[in-house]
Amino acid sequence: MRMRRLRSGLRGWGGVGAMAVVCVLALAFVLVLPATRSHGGPPPAAGGAGAAQGVQARAGDCDDGDVQNRSLAPADADGPAVERIRKRGSLVVGVDQNSYGWGYRNPNSTSDDLDGFDIALARRIAQDLLGSPTKVTFRAIPTNEREHAVESGRVDLVVRTMTITCKRLEKVAFSAPYFLTGQQVLAPRTSPITGYNASLAGKKVCSATGSTAYDHLSADRKSGALPASTDISTTVPNQLDCLVRLQLGDVDAVVTDGALAASQAAQDPAVELKGGTFTKEYYGVAMRRGADDLVRQVNRSLEDYRKDGGWKAAYDHWLSATLGKDSESATPPAPAYR
Question: How far apart are CA 92 and CA 118, in angstroms?
């Protein structure tokens, strides 16, 4: 009965359905998801001999509040990373395939293609780099593998709701910010939890391994900003796994980006957002350090995407129903290049 109710209200995405997707992902997250079947294969390392080294923020001169301003200025600049992609003829992008509205397979579509806001952005970058939005090969990357996928050269880019942070800048390069969000609590509608506050005392909270959500939970419990009795031991490879744990009653709440939490609440009417966002964070496109030419090209795509209305059209199509047309997230963040 529950699954039937969710399917009818959520366009085919229910708790059991989500669990099945997650189980498949756990076995096959490295599977190549080709949008252009004739291309693919692991991209070579982007930071080879002769690649320029970008200036990266260090812990001593960086804070997460303004780290998004450290992106390289947009410019049309060819270089070794871009040339390798053009020679290959396909852009390899790490994405999600189970985040409703961001990167997912639409159960109501007859196509096997991925849909969502991040997918639309990846296709736009491919259009600008290679002349066609179809010249992209998607690879499913779990939350806790995003940085490694870039560092190892398994993908050219990661476009997967990835927050720009000082800590991550030590491992990857980021584009200018393309989305504003913040951490938020998701819990059952009937739960006494009211937000990221004392109501989490004695509660079991789920977050994704390697996520900014877990970083905040850990730091705030140590500092006393979060009750010491809050159990944050449940971590999962993919943040959607937390929704499944919540539906099964294994945890009391989920902490994740508000943009993702809103999409999860749309998937299951039995859960809701509790309280407002308690951080301000920016998503960026992750690339290999040293691939300054690629960073510049992606920044140029983002600049044009904002100005020509492509960003707004994608937001209205994929996210306005869950986040709202007048939310703070409905406007693309303006970069301040340094």
Answer: 14
The maximal CA–CA distance of the chain, rounded, in angstroms, is 61
Give the C-alpha separation, 283 to 278, whole Å. 16
Read off the pLDDT of residues 160-205 as tens digits, 9 standing for 90 and up: 999 999 999 999 999 999 999 999 999 999 999 999 999 999 999 9
If phi > 0 it is left, if psi is from -120 to 50 it is alpha, else beta; for residue 121 that is alpha
Q: What is the pLDDT of residue 241?
A: 92
Residue-wise over 118-134: b if at least 16 C-beta within 10 A, else e? bbbbbbbbbbbbbeebe
Alpha-carbon Rg for the chain in angstroms: 19
Residues 6+ apart with CB under 8 A from 21: 97, 98, 240
What number of H helices and E strands is found in the chain?
Answer: 12, 16
At how many degrees (to 10) do helices 240-248 and 258-267 cross?
A: 50
Q: What are phi and psi of 296, to 5 degrees?
A: -65, -40
pTM of model > 0.90: no
Phi-psi group of 116: left, alpha or beta (phi > 0 → left; psi -120 to 50 → alpha; rest → beta): left
Task: Give the residue among 293, 285, 297, 291 at the shortest CA–CA distance from 129.
Answer: 297
